[in-house]
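Deviations from the work plan: none for this task. Representative record:
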Amino acid sequence: MGAVRWLIVLVGVALAGLGAVAIFGQATSGTQPWDPELSDNFIFVKSIPFVLGLGVAVGLARGRGAGAQRRRADGRVERFRIGTVVGHWIMTIGFLLALPTGMWQYLGGILDVRAPIDLFLFYRVHYVGGAVVLFGVASFLAYWSINADRSLLPPRGQWRAHLAGATAELPPRLSGPIARLFRLDLAARRPTPDRFTYYETGFSFPVWTIALALITVTGLIKAMRYVYPIPGGILYWASTFHVASMVLIVLKVLDHLRYTLPRWPMMVAIAKGWVNEGSIRSLLAAEPTAAPAADADVARAPAMSGSDR
Ligand code: HEM
Protein backbone atom coordinates (compact mmCIF):
# COMPACT_ATOMS: atom_id res chain seq x y z
CA MET A 1 0.00 0.00 0.00
CA GLY A 2 1.40 3.41 -0.97
CA ALA A 3 2.01 6.29 1.45
CA VAL A 4 -1.14 8.17 0.37
CA ARG A 5 -3.32 5.17 1.11
CA TRP A 6 -1.81 4.75 4.56
CA LEU A 7 -2.38 8.45 5.15
CA ILE A 8 -6.08 8.11 4.24
CA VAL A 9 -6.45 5.20 6.69
CA LEU A 10 -4.54 7.05 9.41
CA VAL A 11 -6.74 10.15 9.05
CA GLY A 12 -9.86 7.94 9.15
CA VAL A 13 -8.65 6.07 12.24
CA ALA A 14 -7.57 9.31 13.98
CA LEU A 15 -10.95 10.98 13.36
CA ALA A 16 -12.84 7.87 14.47
CA GLY A 17 -10.64 7.69 17.60
CA LEU A 18 -11.26 11.33 18.46
CA GLY A 19 -14.99 10.81 17.86
CA ALA A 20 -15.03 7.75 20.14
CA VAL A 21 -13.23 9.61 22.94
CA ALA A 22 -15.66 12.54 22.71
CA ILE A 23 -18.77 10.32 22.52
CA PHE A 24 -17.81 8.03 25.40
CA GLY A 25 -16.53 11.01 27.38
CA GLN A 26 -19.97 12.58 27.20
CA ALA A 27 -21.77 9.31 27.98
CA THR A 28 -19.66 8.59 31.09
CA SER A 29 -19.39 12.17 32.36
CA GLY A 30 -22.29 11.58 34.74
CA THR A 31 -23.99 14.78 33.59
CA GLN A 32 -26.48 13.06 31.30
CA PRO A 33 -29.57 11.61 32.98
CA TRP A 34 -30.27 8.82 30.44
CA ASP A 35 -30.91 5.21 31.40
CA PRO A 36 -28.53 2.61 29.82
CA GLU A 37 -30.83 2.01 26.83
CA LEU A 38 -31.31 5.65 25.92
CA SER A 39 -27.61 6.31 26.49
CA ASP A 40 -26.73 3.48 24.05
CA ASN A 41 -29.08 4.97 21.46
CA PHE A 42 -27.25 8.29 21.65
CA ILE A 43 -23.81 6.70 21.56
CA PHE A 44 -24.83 4.71 18.48
CA VAL A 45 -26.31 7.58 16.51
CA LYS A 46 -23.37 9.88 17.28
CA SER A 47 -20.92 7.17 16.20
CA ILE A 48 -22.52 6.60 12.79
CA PRO A 49 -20.78 9.46 10.88
CA PHE A 50 -17.39 8.28 12.21
CA VAL A 51 -18.11 4.64 11.35
CA LEU A 52 -19.17 5.59 7.81
CA GLY A 53 -16.15 7.90 7.42
CA LEU A 54 -13.75 5.18 8.56
CA GLY A 55 -15.40 2.73 6.14
CA VAL A 56 -14.99 5.18 3.24
CA ALA A 57 -11.33 5.81 4.19
CA VAL A 58 -10.56 2.07 4.27
CA GLY A 59 -12.46 1.47 0.99
CA LEU A 60 -10.59 4.26 -0.79
CA ALA A 61 -7.27 3.12 0.64
CA ARG A 62 -7.79 -0.26 -0.98
CA GLY A 63 -7.22 1.48 -4.31
CA ARG A 64 -8.03 0.27 -7.78
CA GLY A 65 -6.23 -3.03 -7.48
CA ALA A 66 -3.60 -4.62 -9.62
CA GLY A 67 -3.92 -5.35 -13.33
CA ALA A 68 -3.87 -8.96 -14.48
CA GLN A 69 -4.96 -11.79 -12.21
CA ARG A 70 -2.10 -13.11 -10.12
CA ARG A 71 -1.04 -16.75 -10.45
CA ARG A 72 1.32 -18.97 -8.51
CA ALA A 73 3.53 -21.68 -9.87
CA ASP A 74 1.56 -24.33 -7.92
CA GLY A 75 -1.58 -23.70 -10.06
CA ARG A 76 -3.36 -21.39 -7.65
CA VAL A 77 -5.01 -18.13 -8.78
CA GLU A 78 -6.05 -15.11 -6.73
CA ARG A 79 -9.86 -15.27 -6.82
CA PHE A 80 -10.46 -12.61 -4.16
CA ARG A 81 -8.09 -9.88 -3.05
CA ILE A 82 -7.21 -9.84 0.66
CA GLY A 83 -9.37 -6.72 1.19
CA THR A 84 -12.39 -8.55 -0.24
CA VAL A 85 -11.75 -11.58 1.98
CA VAL A 86 -11.44 -9.44 5.12
CA GLY A 87 -14.47 -7.32 4.09
CA HIS A 88 -16.55 -10.47 3.60
CA TRP A 89 -15.77 -11.78 7.06
CA ILE A 90 -16.28 -8.37 8.68
CA MET A 91 -19.75 -8.37 7.14
CA THR A 92 -20.35 -11.90 8.46
CA ILE A 93 -19.37 -10.85 12.00
CA GLY A 94 -21.73 -7.86 11.71
CA PHE A 95 -24.58 -10.18 10.70
CA LEU A 96 -23.80 -12.69 13.44
CA LEU A 97 -24.15 -9.88 16.00
CA ALA A 98 -27.05 -7.94 14.49
CA LEU A 99 -29.34 -10.72 13.22
CA PRO A 100 -30.01 -12.77 16.39
CA THR A 101 -30.31 -9.64 18.54
CA GLY A 102 -32.63 -7.99 16.00
CA MET A 103 -34.79 -11.11 15.89
CA TRP A 104 -34.94 -11.22 19.65
CA GLN A 105 -36.07 -7.58 19.86
CA TYR A 106 -38.82 -8.25 17.36
CA LEU A 107 -40.01 -11.74 18.31
CA GLY A 108 -39.54 -11.20 22.06
CA GLY A 109 -41.90 -8.23 21.83
CA ILE A 110 -44.49 -10.05 19.73
CA LEU A 111 -44.46 -13.25 21.80
CA ASP A 112 -44.18 -11.26 25.03
CA VAL A 113 -41.29 -13.34 26.38
CA ARG A 114 -38.40 -12.03 28.46
CA ALA A 115 -34.78 -13.14 28.45
CA PRO A 116 -32.96 -13.60 31.77
CA ILE A 117 -30.68 -10.70 30.79
CA ASP A 118 -31.64 -7.03 30.36
CA LEU A 119 -33.14 -6.01 27.04
CA PHE A 120 -30.77 -3.08 26.68
CA LEU A 121 -27.89 -5.57 26.32
CA PHE A 122 -29.58 -7.01 23.20
CA TYR A 123 -29.82 -3.48 21.80
CA ARG A 124 -26.18 -2.82 22.66
CA VAL A 125 -24.98 -5.88 20.75
CA HIS A 126 -27.40 -5.03 17.92
CA TYR A 127 -25.85 -1.57 17.63
CA VAL A 128 -22.32 -2.99 17.58
CA GLY A 129 -23.38 -5.41 14.80
CA GLY A 130 -25.19 -2.60 12.95
CA ALA A 131 -22.06 -0.41 13.14
CA VAL A 132 -19.92 -3.26 11.77
CA VAL A 133 -22.36 -3.72 8.85
CA LEU A 134 -22.39 0.04 8.18
CA PHE A 135 -18.59 0.06 8.14
CA GLY A 136 -18.59 -2.88 5.69
CA VAL A 137 -21.16 -1.27 3.39
CA ALA A 138 -19.38 2.11 3.37
CA SER A 139 -15.99 0.59 2.63
CA PHE A 140 -17.44 -1.63 -0.11
CA LEU A 141 -19.22 1.32 -1.78
CA ALA A 142 -16.08 3.49 -1.63
CA TYR A 143 -14.01 0.66 -3.08
CA TRP A 144 -16.51 0.10 -5.90
CA SER A 145 -16.62 3.81 -6.68
CA ILE A 146 -12.93 3.78 -7.68
CA ASN A 147 -12.79 0.24 -9.03
CA ALA A 148 -13.97 -0.68 -12.53
CA ASP A 149 -14.46 -4.42 -11.99
CA ARG A 150 -18.15 -5.36 -12.23
CA SER A 151 -17.78 -9.09 -12.78
CA LEU A 152 -20.18 -9.85 -9.90
CA LEU A 153 -22.97 -8.33 -12.01
CA PRO A 154 -24.34 -9.59 -15.36
CA PRO A 155 -22.98 -7.53 -18.27
CA ARG A 156 -25.39 -5.03 -19.85
CA GLY A 157 -28.23 -6.71 -21.72
CA GLN A 158 -27.58 -10.14 -20.15
CA TRP A 159 -29.68 -9.95 -17.00
CA ARG A 160 -32.35 -12.36 -18.22
CA ALA A 161 -29.76 -14.86 -19.44
CA HIS A 162 -27.99 -14.79 -16.07
CA LEU A 163 -31.28 -15.03 -14.18
CA ALA A 164 -32.18 -18.07 -16.30
CA GLY A 165 -28.76 -19.59 -15.51
CA ALA A 166 -29.33 -18.98 -11.79
CA THR A 167 -32.84 -20.50 -11.94
CA ALA A 168 -31.56 -23.58 -13.80
CA GLU A 169 -29.35 -24.39 -10.79
CA LEU A 170 -32.42 -24.94 -8.56
CA PRO A 171 -34.28 -28.26 -8.17
CA PRO A 172 -36.88 -28.67 -11.00
CA ARG A 173 -39.90 -28.25 -8.68
CA LEU A 174 -38.65 -24.70 -7.94
CA SER A 175 -37.02 -23.78 -11.25
CA GLY A 176 -40.11 -24.70 -13.34
CA PRO A 177 -42.57 -22.30 -11.65
CA ILE A 178 -39.95 -19.50 -11.44
CA ALA A 179 -39.13 -19.87 -15.14
CA ARG A 180 -42.83 -19.73 -16.05
CA LEU A 181 -43.39 -16.69 -13.83
CA PHE A 182 -40.53 -14.69 -15.36
CA ARG A 183 -40.78 -16.32 -18.83
CA LEU A 184 -37.22 -17.56 -18.67
CA ASP A 185 -35.85 -20.00 -21.22
CA LEU A 186 -33.98 -22.51 -19.06
CA ALA A 187 -33.09 -24.67 -22.05
CA ALA A 188 -31.24 -21.86 -23.86
CA ARG A 189 -27.54 -22.59 -24.21
CA ARG A 190 -25.25 -20.54 -22.07
CA PRO A 191 -21.46 -20.34 -22.18
CA THR A 192 -19.45 -21.64 -19.26
CA PRO A 193 -18.96 -18.60 -17.02
CA ASP A 194 -15.43 -17.30 -16.76
CA ARG A 195 -15.39 -16.16 -13.17
CA PHE A 196 -18.64 -16.21 -11.18
CA THR A 197 -21.49 -18.65 -11.61
CA TYR A 198 -24.89 -17.54 -12.94
CA TYR A 199 -26.32 -18.06 -9.49
CA GLU A 200 -23.82 -15.50 -8.12
CA THR A 201 -24.26 -12.88 -10.86
CA GLY A 202 -27.93 -13.36 -11.71
CA PHE A 203 -29.30 -13.89 -8.22
CA SER A 204 -26.98 -13.85 -5.21
CA PHE A 205 -25.13 -10.55 -5.58
CA PRO A 206 -28.24 -8.58 -6.68
CA VAL A 207 -30.24 -9.93 -3.71
CA TRP A 208 -27.43 -9.06 -1.27
CA THR A 209 -27.37 -5.56 -2.74
CA ILE A 210 -31.13 -5.03 -2.33
CA ALA A 211 -31.22 -6.54 1.18
CA LEU A 212 -28.22 -4.52 2.41
CA ALA A 213 -29.51 -1.28 0.89
CA LEU A 214 -32.87 -1.83 2.61
CA ILE A 215 -31.48 -2.76 6.02
CA THR A 216 -28.92 0.07 6.12
CA VAL A 217 -31.21 2.87 4.89
CA THR A 218 -34.05 1.86 7.22
CA GLY A 219 -31.61 1.36 10.12
CA LEU A 220 -30.16 4.84 9.56
CA ILE A 221 -33.65 6.38 9.60
CA LYS A 222 -34.51 4.53 12.81
CA ALA A 223 -31.28 5.69 14.49
CA MET A 224 -31.69 9.28 13.29
CA ARG A 225 -34.83 9.75 15.31
CA TYR A 226 -32.68 10.33 18.39
CA VAL A 227 -31.17 13.46 16.87
CA TYR A 228 -33.83 14.57 14.40
CA PRO A 229 -37.66 14.51 14.61
CA ILE A 230 -38.62 11.87 12.02
CA PRO A 231 -42.36 11.94 11.12
CA GLY A 232 -44.29 8.99 12.60
CA GLY A 233 -45.39 7.64 9.20
CA ILE A 234 -41.82 7.46 7.89
CA LEU A 235 -40.68 5.81 11.10
CA TYR A 236 -43.47 3.23 10.84
CA TRP A 237 -42.47 2.24 7.30
CA ALA A 238 -38.76 2.31 8.12
CA SER A 239 -39.39 -0.10 11.02
CA THR A 240 -41.58 -2.36 8.89
CA PHE A 241 -39.00 -2.57 6.10
CA HIS A 242 -36.17 -3.00 8.62
CA VAL A 243 -37.87 -6.17 9.90
CA ALA A 244 -38.76 -7.29 6.34
CA SER A 245 -35.14 -6.91 5.20
CA MET A 246 -33.99 -8.79 8.31
CA VAL A 247 -36.20 -11.74 7.29
CA LEU A 248 -34.86 -11.49 3.72
CA ILE A 249 -31.27 -11.56 5.01
CA VAL A 250 -31.90 -14.61 7.23
CA LEU A 251 -33.28 -16.45 4.18
CA LYS A 252 -30.39 -15.22 2.03
CA VAL A 253 -27.75 -16.35 4.52
CA LEU A 254 -29.33 -19.83 4.55
CA ASP A 255 -29.41 -19.85 0.74
CA HIS A 256 -25.78 -18.63 0.61
CA LEU A 257 -24.71 -21.51 2.85
CA ARG A 258 -26.81 -24.00 0.83
CA TYR A 259 -24.92 -22.90 -2.26
CA THR A 260 -21.36 -22.35 -1.05
CA LEU A 261 -20.81 -25.13 1.52
CA PRO A 262 -21.05 -28.01 -1.00
CA ARG A 263 -18.76 -26.08 -3.39
CA TRP A 264 -15.73 -26.33 -1.15
CA PRO A 265 -13.19 -24.63 -3.47
CA MET A 266 -15.34 -21.49 -3.09
CA MET A 267 -14.93 -21.71 0.69
CA VAL A 268 -11.16 -22.01 0.24
CA ALA A 269 -11.29 -18.93 -2.05
CA ILE A 270 -13.22 -16.75 0.38
CA ALA A 271 -11.03 -17.89 3.31
CA LYS A 272 -7.62 -17.49 1.62
CA GLY A 273 -8.22 -15.42 -1.53
CA TRP A 274 -6.12 -17.96 -3.44
CA VAL A 275 -7.53 -21.20 -4.80
CA ASN A 276 -6.55 -23.99 -7.14
CA GLU A 277 -7.62 -22.83 -10.60
CA GLY A 278 -8.53 -26.33 -11.80
CA SER A 279 -11.02 -26.92 -8.94
CA ILE A 280 -12.77 -23.58 -9.56
CA ARG A 281 -12.81 -24.25 -13.31
CA SER A 282 -14.56 -27.60 -12.75
CA LEU A 283 -17.21 -25.89 -10.60
CA LEU A 284 -17.83 -23.35 -13.35
CA ALA A 285 -17.91 -26.08 -15.99
CA ALA A 286 -20.59 -27.90 -13.97
CA GLU A 287 -23.01 -24.99 -14.51
CA PRO A 288 -26.34 -26.29 -15.89
CA THR A 289 -26.84 -26.29 -19.70
CA ALA A 290 -23.36 -24.90 -20.19
CA ALA A 291 -22.21 -25.11 -23.79
CA PRO A 292 -19.05 -24.14 -25.63
CA ALA A 293 -18.90 -20.40 -26.29
CA ALA A 294 -18.87 -20.96 -30.06
CA ASP A 295 -22.52 -22.04 -30.21
CA ALA A 296 -23.79 -20.11 -27.21
CA ASP A 297 -26.56 -17.60 -27.78
CA VAL A 298 -25.32 -15.12 -25.20
CA ALA A 299 -21.98 -13.36 -25.19
CA ARG A 300 -19.24 -14.70 -22.93
CA ALA A 301 -19.10 -13.39 -19.41
CA PRO A 302 -16.22 -10.96 -18.71
CA ALA A 303 -12.83 -12.62 -18.82
CA MET A 304 -11.31 -13.92 -15.60
CA SER A 305 -8.29 -11.70 -16.12
CA GLY A 306 -9.63 -8.64 -14.23
CA SER A 307 -8.07 -8.69 -10.80
CA ASP A 308 -10.00 -5.97 -8.98
CA ARG A 309 -12.03 -8.29 -6.88
C1 HEM B 1 -22.41 -16.98 7.17
C2 HEM B 1 -21.23 -17.20 6.73
C3 HEM B 1 -20.84 -17.05 5.28
C4 HEM B 1 -20.19 -18.00 4.54
C5 HEM B 1 -19.77 -19.39 5.01
C6 HEM B 1 -19.96 -17.45 3.22
C7 HEM B 1 -19.32 -18.09 2.19
C8 HEM B 1 -18.99 -17.51 0.97
C9 HEM B 1 -18.18 -18.10 -0.04
C10 HEM B 1 -17.59 -19.49 0.06
C11 HEM B 1 -18.06 -17.24 -1.08
C12 HEM B 1 -17.20 -17.44 -2.33
C13 HEM B 1 -17.97 -17.76 -3.57
C14 HEM B 1 -17.04 -17.83 -4.76
O1 HEM B 1 -15.90 -18.26 -4.63
O2 HEM B 1 -17.50 -17.42 -5.80
C15 HEM B 1 -18.84 -16.09 -0.75
C16 HEM B 1 -19.03 -15.01 -1.58
C17 HEM B 1 -19.85 -13.95 -1.29
N1 HEM B 1 -20.46 -13.71 -0.08
FE1 HEM B 1 -20.46 -14.94 1.54
N2 HEM B 1 -20.49 -16.21 3.18
C18 HEM B 1 -21.04 -15.90 4.41
C19 HEM B 1 -21.65 -14.71 4.76
C20 HEM B 1 -21.92 -13.66 3.92
C21 HEM B 1 -22.62 -12.46 4.29
C22 HEM B 1 -23.16 -12.13 5.69
C23 HEM B 1 -22.69 -11.70 3.19
C24 HEM B 1 -23.40 -10.38 3.16
C25 HEM B 1 -22.97 -9.35 2.64
C26 HEM B 1 -22.02 -12.41 2.10
C27 HEM B 1 -21.89 -11.94 0.80
C28 HEM B 1 -21.16 -12.53 -0.19
C29 HEM B 1 -21.02 -12.02 -1.54
C30 HEM B 1 -21.66 -10.73 -2.08
C31 HEM B 1 -20.21 -12.91 -2.23
C32 HEM B 1 -19.82 -12.83 -3.70
C33 HEM B 1 -20.64 -13.82 -4.52
C34 HEM B 1 -22.09 -13.98 -4.22
O3 HEM B 1 -22.84 -13.00 -4.19
O4 HEM B 1 -22.52 -15.15 -4.01
N3 HEM B 1 -21.56 -13.59 2.59
N4 HEM B 1 -19.37 -16.28 0.52
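Residues 292-308 have pLDDT under 50 and may be disordered.
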